[in-house]
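Researcher: Batch entry, complex prediction.
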Amino acid sequence: MSKTDDPIPRVVASLKKVLPARFHDVSILRETRFQEDLSMDSLNFLEFLVALEEEFRVDLTADVLRVQSLRSVDDVVKLLDQLGAEAR
Amino acid sequence: MIPAPVAVSGLAYEIGDLKPLESIEALRRSERSLISLRDKGVRRYAESELGPAAMAARAARRTLGITGVAPRDIDAVIYASTSFWEKRFTTEREISWLLFELGLENAHPVGVFLPGCANASISIRMAANLVRAEGYRHVLVATADKVAPEHPEKRVMWPDVSVLSDSAASCLVGAAGTGSFDVLRMAHRSSPAMWDLDADSNLAAFLMGTVKGARRTAHAVLSAAEVEPAAIRRLITNNYNEPVMRMMARQCGFAEEQAFLDNVPRFAHGYAADTLINLADCTAHEPAAPGDLYFLLGTGHKNWGAALLRKT
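Model: C-alpha cells for the complex:
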C-alpha cells in the first residue's frame, strides 16, 4: 500500500467478504463501527482480520494488534497506516 | 532426532445427561445468544451429577476393559483437568480415590491443567515421553472437567461461542504397535506474549493470536512428519461450534470437510475431553483403515497441542 492510496475501498471489500449478505448493500464509511453498526460477531471479526492480512499483505500478530484497538473502519485505516512501511 | 512412535489404545469416554440449551436459565434470558448458538449447530449440552474424578473413573474403566490391560500393569496416570481451580469438587483426595477405585496399585498420578482445553494431546505427549524415556509399559491418560454447579452461568461461553459439557475421556499410551493408533508426531506451543489478552481486553489480538498459535502448532507437526493436510483423513478439534471448527480447519491448511463436526449438536464443548471423544466417535462411525491419518488439535487458553495419529 503506498501512502497515497486510499485503503478504505479495500478495507470495505475485505469487510464485505465476511459479512452476511444482508449487509452487502449497506454503506460502509470510515466511521462505521464493526459491532454496533454491522453486528459483527467474533467469527466475522476474525475472518475480517484474516482477509485484511491477505489484502494488505500484513502480519496482524497479537503484538501488532495491541497497538491499535480495532472498533471501526477508521481504527483499521490508522493501523494500516502505522504498518505502511511493511505493507505492499 | 525422530521420536519413537508410541501407541494410543482404548479410547473411551463418559459424558453427563444430555439436555437442550433451553435448560440453561441464563440462555433463556438471552434470546440472541440462544439463537446464535443454534445457528452455529449447538443444540444440547451434558450435565453430570458426578465429579470430574468419578466421570474419569467411568471412562477409565471402559479403557481398561477395551484394552484388557490389568490395573496393576498401569505404571502412571496422567490426569488432566482445568477444574483443579474448583477446590470444592476437585481435590488431591479425589485423584487418590480414582487410583484406588480402579485398582491402580502400581501407578503414580501426574496432574496436567495449565494448557486448558489443549490438555488431551499434551497429556498424551507426557505419557508418550514416560514410555520412551523410562520404558513405562502402560500410561493411563484421563481428562475430566465439570462446570461448577453453583455457577451455572459459567456453562455458556458468551456471547455465542459454545456451551460447556461435563465430560471425561481416557486412553492408554504404550509402545508403538500395541494400540489402535500410532502417534507419529506431537507438538505443544504456548504464547507468553498473549499473557494478558482475552476476548474482553482486546478481541482482535486475542482472536488472531489464538488462530496463529493453532496454525503454527499444526504446521510444526505436519512439516516434521512431511505430511500434507490433504493426506489427513479427519481433523479432530475441540467441539466449540461448526463455523469456528470449519474456520480453524481452513486457517490450519485443511479443507472444511476434513473437520469432524458430528458431535457439535450432540453435546458442544466438553473441555479437553472433547477431542478424544470426537476421535472415538469419528472412528466408530466412519471405520478407519490401517494407515489412515488423523490430526488431533487442541486449543487451550494461549496453549495449543497437536498430535498426528496413524490407524494401525
